[in-house]
Amino acid sequence: MLLKLAWRNLWRSRKRTLITVSSVFFAVLLAVMAESVNRGSHESMIRNSVSYFTGYLQLQDSAYFEEPSLDYCFSWNEAEAERFSLPGVQSLIPRLQGFVLAAGGDRTRAALVLGIEPEKEQQLNGLQDQLLAGDFEPGGVVLGDRLAERLQLGIGDSLVLLGQGYQGQQAAGIYRISGLVKPTSPELRKQIAYLTLADAQSLFGAYDMVSSVLVMPNQPNATDKLQQQMSDLLPADGFVVVRNWRELLPELLAAIEFDNASNRIILFILYLVIGFGIFGTVLTMTLERRKEFGVLISVGMRRRRLGWMALYESLLMGCIGILAGMAASVPLVAWFYYHPIPMGEELQAISEEFGVEPLIFFSADPSIFSSQALVVLGMCLLVALYPGYYISKLDVLKASRS
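The structure corresponding to this sequence follows.
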């Protein structure tokens, strides 16, 4: 009966109810959008980093992480690729990486040589779409655009690579520049030189060997489970291990944790503003009904039952506002998830310098909606306690005469 009375009371004063519901509605909408933008930016940072540098998982020699040397390469062939092609693995991307001195004409620069399989890299990070000119060819090298500028070289020119190969061998070769590329990472633009995997293995004398194999899962959320499955397939000697992106990118993880801490402060301030906004509407509603409460108590209604009725009213308004906020936020987040917001020209130039996409990304993680709805529901529950407290302290005679 109390719940039925509470529902009817809501619509006796539609304006008052709609004001309270609106405050809860905008509370949920703002909280969801703020958290979605925060997580979306983190997901974008992780996606960019794993696509270019580490993968969500990476097979490598156990000593390679501490000392990324060509001496810690390991064998990789079709049989190994077949063995690690587990259900849930989207792709396995082998790489051979080494540092050399790149020379062209009378200029030299330090360069990072990356031996790749272009088709697999295209699936990983769209590398071929970032070509400014030319293409990947056997026997050719594709240079980062800024490295080519520093060496004053272009397509068709010859590039000499000189360094140390596998187990102290001399690495030396001359290659025709077959293409220029503009990766999103500014550091790669200044130092990258792409060779086909076979050419890099020949240059460094590391035949049928790789320095790492990037693993991209179908579902990034299943990374930990996939890591355990791949670890079980590795030899017991422990020379080759599988690491996840959190181990490989501790600086990125620390930056995300720091950003999360600052975002919690912002959300706390937002919750504080929202909470006082909801409390203000409930307080006004309660004071407006002072005479009504006094009359009801005077004719015999117990304070406890009246308090429960007021509590139900507040909770019902909160639930209506939360459901409406969820209903509005889901399509909004879905739209921005598939259509990120482009930045302005000035911000676009700055974002490119830092190697991030010039877009504001949103996350569609379902936990965003549930967590924010529960937080706002908790605030509504706390605020809903006030009418009961007010009724318990109400002076019936004064209230009835007001």
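The mean pLDDT is 85.
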